[in-house]
Design brief:
This protein is 55% helix and 8% strand. By secondary structure, it is mainly alpha-helical. Among the domains are: 8-47 and 55-137, no CATH class; 442-572, BirA Bifunctional Protein, domain 2; 575-688, no CATH class. α1 (21-28) packs across α5 and α23 runs antiparallel to α24. The longest helix has 45 residues, at 117-161. 37% of the residues are buried.
């Protein structure tokens, strides 16, 4: 590992060592000197052979004119490291590059040197990869630092604008479909704003998008960091063009994420500025901070260079874009700080009271409390300004810009403090929800309570009595009732008593209640939570509500249409099938009776997967022949108006009429459909032969 010691010296070329982006950044910005490990120099040849020396020609290390001094020094640092990885060059080249890097001059000029043909080939082959890797290392280090502070800056803006941040609490819905980094940003924001009395009711898309924008940058930065580390320490053997394209692909994603961050941060900076009455500060902002147009123009230069496959220019422009966005984010931080504390700290000092915050809002904010995390950051900034005793607007704004500059000696302290805030026990990162579960805030609860009241009223209208059953049952009551889905039952730990499990649904507990009490006729309704040890996915949770109305009658469908109509959810359809018809269909297709339940479980997935996927499962995993699976495929495609499809299935010659189970089901369905037609709700029902359940207690 390249080390940065107390004397700010970074050693390269040591046995088993590797170069990282932070070291490249330090050397390229003159924050550290480079030292070549003596063992690396020993591996290189010091002179040309005395006998038959190869011919030499003049050669000058090419530094592209488009590069900045920072980028040029990064290029030379990486070139030096790659030369030390085992190339056949003389010691003098390594010494020349290290001395040039340590010279701290404002320009980099190399005199032409004598090289052999082999040395020229090596230097030319390594030049382009070293340029690309060097700039990538700078991008990696700066973007990593940026991604580490942007959440804290955004949190300050949330308080400065009194933004509504309640939505951050529901980012992780528990369905497994929210990006990990987006959830991480929301969590950090909650920690930073924990205890804040300044966040309020101001709704803004530019606040709500923070987790997505910042989370995407985090995600891309990690990818760039991983690939850059490899490129910095790999020797170039073949595929220089491929390396350039691979580096370009990663950097392109980074540029897009940086551009999006810049636009988002610029809006919040302007929002913060609008709450401050300071002509001087506004003038400085308009003069120094990039506009949205400039941001887009620079991003276009990045895209154009990438399209033209000019990868050196592309990475250079990406670095320019990153510097532009760094300044925007810093302005957001400065303006948020002034909006929060400017009137108190700076009103008397700066330009005779040039910085003024609205008195009413200032009075209100003095009484209010900052978040535990943001409060620490604000105090750090105040301590910095007070230690400098700056009294001119330009001076203290300039000093704050230095504070947020990765080259500033105190920047690492700021970065460390932010990390401590979001990770320390004192701030306590809020506990995470188990996957597949979710919280319901007051707004969601209001909707739920309204919906439940409508549903309950419809149930009562039809004479149903309320029933509540325990959230857990005897394990023996639940097992064997759900076919393949029995594996999804949550078992409770055996503590030396009865073996119990969390209920999987409300129907089996209801059946247990009926059996225990010897009931033969009972209408009941129940709305309660059930639990399934399933893999969370979109719309599929491990804990959720079921609304049950149990009675063996067409009235169940009638009740369902009534309550859905009264809930006013828009268009809907109720799928309906008969278990005996499903069994008859499987028998007609040639499915062995012992496989009925497991094949039903496969068919049940047709609303989420294609038939080809289901067919593969039935054939390869469950042992059906291809012919049997294809016959099933012809039947499960049948769906339509209940009476129309029923008539089709009962036509003369229909295979369903030759099967006793199917014929009995069709007779039942005819009675049911006629009843639904008379009750004027059949238009909401779809007769669908693909509707299948694997639950063992379904009989009709």
């Amino acid at each position: 590992m390249a080390e940065r010691g107390s004397a700010a010296v970074i050693t390269v070329g040591g046995k088993g060592s590797s170069l990282n982006s932070s070291s490249v950044y330090a050397i390229s910005n003159g924050l550290a000197q480079v030292r070549v490990d003596s063992s690396a120099l020993d591996r290189l040849s010091s002179t040309l052979p005395n006998q038959n020396p190869p011919p030499v020609t003049k050669f000058q290390i090419p530094i592209p004119k488009t590069l900045t001094l920072e980028e040029s020094r990064a290029f030379l640092t990486v070139l030096l490291n790659k030369l030390l990885l085992g190339s056949s060059i003389r010691t003098a080249f390594a010494v020349l590059i290290s001395e040039t890097l340590n010279s701290q001059t404002e320009t980099l000029q190399f005199e032409s040197v004598d090289v052999t043909e082999d040395e020229r080939i090596v230097l030319e082959k390594l030049s382009l990869p070293s340029v690309l890797s060097g700039i990538c290392a700078v991008l990696d280090h700066k973007s990593s630092a940026l991604s580490a502070i942007i959440d804290a800056v955004a949190a300050l803006s949330c308080e400065a604008s009194g933004a509504d941040v309640a939505a951050f609490n529901s980012i992780d819905s528990g369905d497994g479909f929210t990006a990990k980094e987006e959830i991480g940003v929301a969590g950090d924001l909650k920690v930073l704003l924990n205890g804040s009395k300044l966040v309020g009711k101001m709704k803004s898309e530019d606040i709500l998008e923070i987790p997505k924008i910042n989370g995407k940058l985090r995600e891309v930065v990690k990818s760039v960091h991983s690939s850059t580390r490899v490129e910095l320490n790999s020797s170039v053997k073949v595929g220089i063009s491929g390396t350039a394209k691979a580096v370009g692909a990663n950097a392109l994603a980074l540029a897009a994420a940086i551009h999006n961050l810049g636009e988002s941060s610029l809006y919040r900076a302007k929002m913060n500025l609008n709450s401050i009455n300071s002509d001087g500060l506004r003038s400085l902002f308009e003069k120094d901070c990039s506009s949205g147009d400039n941001l887009r123009k620079t991003y276009k230069l990045v895209l154009d260079a990438n399209f033209e496959e000019d990868y050196v220019k592309f990475l250079h422009e990406a670095n320019v874009l990153l510097g532009m966005v760094w300044k925007i984010v810093t302005w957001e931080a400065v303006l948020a700080f002034v909006a929060l504390e400017g009137g108190e700290l700076l009103g008397e000092k700066v330009n005779g009271g040039d910085v003024v915050v609205d008195k009413k809002s200032e009075k209100k904010k003095k009484k209010a409390v900052l978040g535990k995390g943001t409060g620490v950051i604000v105090q750090l900034i105040k301590d910095r300004l007070q230690s400098k005793s700056l009294g001119i607007l330009e001076k203290w704004s300039e000093d704050l810009f230095s504070f947020f500059d990765p080259r500033d000696p105190e920047f690492d302290g700021l970065l460390t403090k932010i990390r401590e805030i979001v990770e320390s026990n004192e701030s306590r990162r809020l506990p995470k929800l188990p996957k597949g579960t979710r919280d319901f805030a007051k707004e969601q609860m209001a909707v739920r309570e309204k919906a439940f009241s409508i549903i309950t009223e419809v149930f009562k209208r039809h004479g149903a009595m309320a029933l509540d059953t325990p959230v857990f049952e005897m394990r023996e009551t639940l097992m064997g009732k759900y076919g393949e889905d029995s594996k999804l039952i949550y078992d409770l730990a055996d503590q030396g008593g009865e073996l119990c499990s969390l209920r999987y649904d409300l129907t089996v507990p209801f059946a247990r209640y009926v059996a225990m009490n010897g009931l033969t006729s009972f209408k009941r309704h129940q709305i309660a939570k059930v639990y399934r040890r399933d893999n969370p996915s979109k719309g599929r949770y491990r804990e959720f509500y079921q609304c049950d109305f149990d009675i063996a009658d067409f009235e169940v469908v009638k009740i369902l249409t009534e309550l859905l109509n009264e809930l006013d959810i828009g268009d809907y359809e109720i799928k309906l099938n008969h278990r005996l018809l499903l069994d008859g269909m499987l028998e007609i297709c040639g499915v062995p009776s012992e496989k009925f339940r497991t094949i039903c479980s496969s068919i049940d997935k047709l609303d989420k997967q294609s038939f080809e996927q289901i067919k593969k499962e039935m054939v390869e995993e469950k042992g059906l022949s291809v012919e049997t699976a294809d016959r099933i495929g012809t039947f499960v495609k049948e769906r339509g108006s209940p009476l129309v499809l029923l008539s089709k299935l009962r036509q003369e010659g229909s295979l369903f009429l030759e099967n006793s189970s199917a014929k009995l089901a069709l007779d039942d369905l005819e009675i049911l459909f006629q009843a639904l037609e008379k009750s004027k709700c059949i238009d909401k029902v779809v007769f669908d032969l693909s509707l299948a359940r694997g639950l063992d207690y379904y009989t009709g």
